[in-house]
Automatic annotation (TrEMBL):
<feature type="region of interest" description="Disordered">
    <location>
        <begin position="1"/>
        <end position="30"/>
    </location>
</feature>
<dbReference type="InterPro" id="IPR029058">
    <property type="entry name" value="AB_hydrolase_fold"/>
</dbReference>
<dbReference type="InterPro" id="IPR000073">
    <property type="entry name" value="AB_hydrolase_1"/>
</dbReference>
<dbReference type="Pfam" id="PF12697">
    <property type="entry name" value="Abhydrolase_6"/>
</dbReference>
<feature type="domain" description="AB hydrolase-1">
    <location>
        <begin position="55"/>
        <end position="316"/>
    </location>
</feature>
<dbReference type="InterPro" id="IPR050471">
    <property type="entry name" value="AB_hydrolase"/>
</dbReference>
<protein>
    <recommendedName>
        <fullName>AB hydrolase-1 domain-containing protein</fullName>
    </recommendedName>
</protein>
Amino acid sequence: MTTMEREAEQVVETPSDPQTDQPLEKDRSSQVVTIPGANRAVGFAEYGSKSGTAVIYLHGLPGSRFEASLWEANATALDVRLIALDRPGMGLSTHHPDRTMTTYPADVAAVAKHLQLAKYFILAVSGGGGYALACASRTDQLLGLQGVGVVGGLGPRNMTQQGMGLIQRLSFHAMDWIPNGVVGWMWDAMIGKSARNRDTTVLDKAVRKLLAKEVKGPDDDIANDESNIRSLTSSLRGAFIQGSHGYVREASLVVKPWGFDLEDINGIQVRLWYGEKDDLAPPAVGKAMADKIVGAVFTMYEGESHTASVMRHQKEILTALCGLSVNEAS
């Protein structure tokens, strides 16, 4: 057993045997379902309404189910039931080293079946975008799926990189030659060990330092909001609670061919929202993807960053995705 694995065993949250951990089932933020025949679990959380319009939320990279708590207030106001999934190797979801973008719809299908969702939508943010589009390409596996939304989603590597920041471009290309073990070590040094530290103030301090460095200017109010800080801290703790292998697998999948063609997505409404000033997932990428998807609707928020596009337009996004009435969105 590695040092990283020993550390992961010491933390409060562990997916080792979620079926027998009955208290988890009583907590809306820490639920599990097993994938039939796969001997692995998918962790998920629920926020907002308990019986309203169901929206399955796919977190960013790095992230976990707790990220969806950033949307809780607006989900509650709109009577939306947010159901946020942990991807494999993060939070309560069992690590799945052989997973791909196109195997992920099985996780969504398992949760939808477990919760008996007759109709639902999918909403993905940033690094979750590819998984949402994979679901849009596999609607035959997802009975009841009504529409898919992507906010600031990363695009396939062969898509345009116009407007992407230098560091993001280098990160994309570095995955070709930096060994996965080194990537994991780097992220563990940056945030992973802090995430697994039993002293919760360690990660809190690290997150505040990160926000102060990365989120500036017109988005200061977002970065300094205590509720946002708590949500982001919980999300990052979940992302690295099992170690860094979940993140490493995620990063490698983003830069590899996704396993499906955007042109093959049809028969399902897809909406994409991007910030004009986003240099992580630039609007040129979103527009290029929208142009390849039959009937896709692309929206760009003028002057908005990656952070602002996610945080400042939640009511509008949920309203458009779910087809809510003006009265419900007011």
